[in-house]
Structure formats: structure tokens, C-alpha cells
Write a structure and sequence with these properties.
One of its GO terms (cellular component) is periplasmic space. It is found in: Periplasm. It catalyses: 4 Cu(+) + O2 + 4 H(+) = 4 Cu(2+) + 2 H2O. This is Multicopper oxidase CueO. A hairpin with a 2-residue loop joins strand 5 and strand 6. Strands 1, 16, 18, 19, 22, 24 and 25 form a 7-stranded mixed β-sheet that branches. The protein has a 7-stranded mixed β-sheet with strand order 15-14-13-17-23-20-21, with helices on one face. It has a 6-stranded mixed β-sheet with strand order 2-6-5-4-8-10, with no helix packed on it. By secondary structure, the protein is mainly beta. The protein is built from 10 helices and 36 strands. The protein folds into 2 domains: 402 residues, Immunoglobulin-like (Sandwich); 134 residues, Immunoglobulin-like (Sandwich), CATH 2.60.40. It starts with 9 loop residues before the first helix and ends with a strand.
């Protein structure tokens, strides 16, 4: 395919097909009806045929090893190490990992359990040959403990973290944040989960009889590439760095082509998009139709009440808490978690805005490239079609099994979600997202400078930010360190977003507490932030795109909260 002439690519074609397939759905947050929504969809049928061949049991949190569950009280020393695991069957894949020894057991990337009010006290020891640091994604902590990358741990160094867990119950996560190394370290394995519980959370688990790893399943969505030996491949060209690295193989909990067995009951899925740059349009499908499910929570915890939907987007860094009532499904066939087709809107390309360099085509042109042009090494394992962003693909098959009678009902109230605090009538602070035509992404025209704060706010201030994405751009999942926020309004949204939106253009997940918001090309999103905090002195944080290559290419700024 030629580059820089036409920006209508295979991705756009598939996305338009997906939009046509969804045209019969009802807009708004109550889109789905019990038992499915609309006529049988051939694309969904194709997804289910793909899932029928899935043969690898989904990795689940256990009592040790990879994703082993560990109370925060036992998380006292963590080492960043090089290790290896079996990702593809029969092959050992070298990875980076957070390693913990506790109670005579070894944990890699432990899933941490905490109660609101617990203290985090852990020493990080860096055993790899690169600087690193842990960022506690979504937690409202002081800047010294935030792991924002302004201070990092050199090879052989150590750092002590100490802070109380003050945030609402939710599934947070932790990952590296050393500028210059973030994408490759996260890609090679440094990421895991942190569950914070409070009274609302405990009540929900009791009401629905949920148990972590059994009927409450964390799902970490990632995309990766492997060479013929099963080693991870990450070597982005200039264009791939600019557009964001999209791996050709889809993994859930580091399991390719996974399946899970579940009873006919309400099952909870805690979903993290842990990909570097890929977004997903999630749906549960069966018999050629989308099944309704309930959105129970977002980045910062439970919603006030469950919202019934039948699809949702999730962008890098975001989390979704969903409840699926499998009693509504046909017991005679499996249910598939899928990413439906959509237009990923990689509209940043074109001859006048392509990144610099003779071998750097625009990402819009790259979208239709075949595997040989993608620059990847030969892959291991069975021949699987390359998963372009926006392709309709199966993520996981859920096999329904006979189970004991289950009489629990979906709760009508989930939490005492505080109302969004709106700033006064003063003009919003504008955050303009764009790029400079030379391979860099910008915020308000500037590139990341770790030595200087681009803006300052006053402690206790209540501000409204208007995040404006350029038309000739890409979607940007914008992540705020130090504080959560509420989404107030979406303006100028593309059609694929408007289909799912309700009042003020808000998506279902916009109803909750957020730390990462997806802003589509041409879209403006208004958010409300309360900069009240209990920490002493001035605080330094960052605001950046969570497409990790975009942050490295300049789309990050440092901001100060003045005491």
C-alpha cells in the first residue's frame, strides 16, 4: 500500500462495517435488552467461530507465582528482576517482573489486596540494568510516592514507599514510569493489580456471593508480538513510536486464545486495558448477538447504580468493573468476550503531517500494511491472523457449566458515589492535544520537559479542564496523576461515540470516578477536578497520554499543586 496519499485504510473500512453492524442498537446507557440486541450479526458469528478454537485455560490469580494474591501487609520488599514464563505453549518467554518472597513463596507481579485505610510500606530494589520506578496508577498519593518519573531508581538502587491508601474501593494497578523506558518496561511485563476494598465493596461481594479468582475474575488485556523462539518483540520504527505500538497477538492475563468455565450466575469481571496503545470495543456475544451486561464501576470505583449496556470502549490505562448475568445466556453454547470492529480513527497521517524521517510513513498509511511491512520478527506458535486495532476479534471464550441454583439478584444500589464537584463559572483550563508534524505529540503546543512545570494550580482549587483533541489526530487516553476527576460533557464526538452516548454526550463509563479519559479526534471533553489533598508542601505530578509511546513522544506535562 502506498503511504501518505489516501488516509482511508483497512482499519477505516472495518470500522465502517462495524458501525453499520451496530446501527440497529438503541443509543444511550440502557441499550441492551435481556437475551441480546438486534438481529444476528455475521461479524459476531465470525468472532464466535474464532473463539471455538481457543484451547488455553485462562491464567487466574492464585496463592503464589504469577499474579499470586498478596495482602499489602505482606508486600514489604519488591525486586524488579528479569525472569521467564511460559506465555505461548511450550516456549519460555523472558520477561521483566516484580518479584516478591513472602511466607516461603515466590510471587511474580503479585495482585495486591488492601483495605481502605491500610498503609503501603514497601521497598523497591532495582535488579535490572535500566532505571525504573513504580507508579501507583489511580491512587491519590503525595508526589514523592506517586512514581511520576521525576525521580527514578537507578540500576542497583532502592526506594522506600510509605503512604496510606485513602482511595475508594476499586481495582487500581501499578507499573513503571521512568521516562524513556516506560513503554518497553511495561511491554516486557512490569504491571500488576491492586485491589482496594471498602464497605461498599464488601457489601457487593456479600450480596452477589463473589470470590476473587472464582466468580470475580480480573482480566488484563494486552497485545504482544513474539519471535520464533517465543521472545517478546518490541522494536518500533519512528512511525510506530509516533502512532503507538500495536502487537499482533491478543492476550488476556498473559494467556493467548484463553477459555474460562463459569456457572449460570452473576459473574464479575474486573477489566484492565494494559496494552501500550490498543483500544478495544468490548462486548459479550452469543449466537450472533450482543448480550446485555451491567457496568458496575470505572477507574475510581463503583458507580451509584449498575448501568445496563451491551458494548463499551476501553482505552489504555482504563479499568471497567462489569457484572454479567449468565443466567440470561443460552446454556447450550459458550459466551465470547470480544472486541467488536470499529474505526480506530488514526487520522493523524497525510503528506503534510507525517513524522520525520525517510522510513517513517504516516500511521494512517501503515494501518493497512501486511505483516512483512510491520517490521516484526517471525512469530512463534500457530498461524493466527494479525490483530489490527479495530478488527473484530475474540478475546476469551466462556464455557457455561452446570452449577448450583443461584437466586441472587442484581443490586439496584452499588455505592454512595459523591456528586461531581463543578468549578465556578470561570473559564475552563484548556488542554489542546496535537502534534508538531515532526514525530512529536504535544499538549498546548509543548513537549514534555521534566525540569519545568508547565502549569500550577492551588491546593484546594476546583477546576474545570477542557481537553481538546485536534481533528487530524488520534484518540488519546489522557491520564492525570495525583487526583481523580469526573467527566462533565463531551462535545464534537465522532459517530461511533455518539451511538453509545446519553445526555451531554456522556458515555456510560463517564458516569463514574475517572483517572484516564479517552478523547477522540475532533472531540472536546470537559472534566472537573478537585485539587484538595492532605499532603504537606507543594506537590509535583504529570498529566499525559496513556498510549505509552505518545507520552514518550512528548504528550506529557508536569504540573505543580501549590500549598
Amino acid at each position: 500500500m502506498s503511504h501518505g496519499v489516501s488516509t482511508f485504510t483497512r482499519r477505516h473500512f472495518l470500522g465502517s462495517l462495524g458501525a453499520l453492524g451496530a446501527a440497529g442498537s438503541v443509543p444511550g446507557v440502557l441499550a441492551a435488552t435481556p437475551g441480546g440486541s438486534g438481529a444476528m450479526d455475521e461479524a459476531i458469528t465470525g468472532i464466535e467461530k474464532e473463539a471455538a478454537g481457543f484451547a488455553n485455560p485462562l491464567r487466574l490469580p492464585g496463592s503464589s507465582g504469577l499474579f499470586g494474591v498478596l495482602p499489602v501487609s505482606e508486600f514489604r520488599e519488591v525486586q524488579v528482576v528479569r525472569s521467564e514464563i511460559e506465555v505461548l505453549p511450550g516456549r519460555r518467554t523472558p520477561i521483566l517482573a516484580y518479584a516478591v518472597e513472602s511466607g516461603g513463596k515466590t510471587f511474580l507481579n503479585p495482585a495486591l489486596l488492601a483495605r481502605r485505610g491500610d498503609e503501603m510500606r514497601v521497598r523497591l530494589i532495582n535488579r535490572i540494568d535500566q532505571p525504573t520506578v513504580i507508579h501507583w496508577h489511580g491512587l491519590s498519593v503525595d508526589s514523592r510516592n506517586d512514581g511520576n518519573g521525576l525521580n527514578v531508581v537507578p540500576p542497583g538502587g532502592r526506594m522506600d514507599y510509605a503512604f496510606p491508601l485513602r482511595d475508594r474501593s476499586s481495582m487500581y494497578w501499578y507499573h513503571p514510569h521512568a521516562h524513556g523506558y516506560i513503554p518497553q518496561q511495561a511491554y516486557h511485563g512490569l504491571a500488576s493489580l491492586l485491589f482496594v476494598e471498602d464497605d461498599d465493596e464488601a457489601a457487593l461481594r456479600k450480596e452477589l456471593d463473589l470470590a476473587l479468582g472464582e466468580t470475580e475474575i480480573p482480566l488484563v488485556l494486552q497485545d504482544r508480538e513474539f519471535d520464533a523462539q517465543g521472545r517478546l518483540h518490541y522494536a518500533p520504527t519512528a512511525a510506530q513510536s509516533f502512532g503507538g505500538w500495536v502487537g499482533e497477538r491478543l492476550l488476556v492475563n498473559l494467556t493467548e486464545r484463553p477459555f474460562l468455565q463459569a456457572g449460570r450466575r452473576i459473574v464479575r469481571f474486573r477489566i484492565l486495558n494494559g496494552s501500550n496503545a490498543r483500544s478495544y470495543r468490548l462486548a459479550f456475544v452469543q449466537g450472533g448477538r450482543r448480550l446485555g451486561f451491567f457496568l458496575a464501576g470505572t477507574d475510581g470505583g463503583l458507580l451509584a447504580q449498575p448501568l445496563r449496556i451491551d458494548q463499551t470502549f476501553i482505552s489504555p490505562g482504563q479499568r471497567l468493573d462489569v457484572l454479567v448475568d449468565l443466567r440470561e445466556a443460552d446454556p447450550g453454547r459458550p459466551v465470547t468476550l470480544a472486541s467488536l470492529a470499529f474505526d480506530p480513527m488514526h487520522a493523524e497521517g497525510g503528506h503534510d503531517m507525517a513524522p520525520a524521517g525517510p522510513a517513517a510513513p504516516s500511521m494512517a498509511g501503515m494501518a493497512g500494511m501486511d505483516h512483512s511491512q510491520h517490521g516484526a520478527a517471525p512469530t512463534a506458535g500457530p498461524s493466527i491472523p494479525m490483530a489490527m486495532e479495530g478488527d473484530a476479534r475474540a478475546l476469551m471464550r466462556i464455557d457455561l457449566k452446570p452449577s448450583a441454583p443461584y437466586e441472587r439478584r442484581m443490586p439496584t444500589v452499588l455505592s454512595s458515589l459523591p456528586a461531581a464537584t463543578i468549578a465556578s463559572a470561570s473559564p475552563p483550563r484548556r488542554m489542546q492535544l496535537g502534534h508538531n508534524g515532526r514525530g512529536n505529540w504535544t499538549i498546548n503546543g509543548g513537549l514534555f520537559d521534566p525540569k519545568a512545570a508547565a502549569l500550577s494550580v492551588q491546593r484546594g482549587a476546583r477546576e474545570t479542564w477542557l481537553i481538546e483533541n485536534a481533528e487530524r489526530s488520534m484518540p488519546h487516553p489522557m491520564h492525570l496523576h495525583g487526583f481523580s476527576f469526573r467527566v462533565i460533557e463531551r462535545l464534537g464526538s465522532p459517530a461511533l461515540v455518539r451511538e453509545l452516548a446519553g445526555a451531554r454526550g456522556l458515555l456510560p463509563q463517564d458516569q463514574g470516578v475517572m483517572d484516564t479519559v479517552h478523547v477522540w479526534p475532533g472531540e472536546s471533553v470537559r472534566i472537573a477536578i478537585d485539587f484538595t489533598h492532605p499532603h504537606a508542601g507543594d506537590q509535583d505530578y504529570v498529566f499525559h497520554c496513556h498510549s505509552l509511546e505518545h507520552a514518550e513522544a512528548g504528550m506529557m506535562l508536569r504540573y505543580t499543586v501549590k500549598a
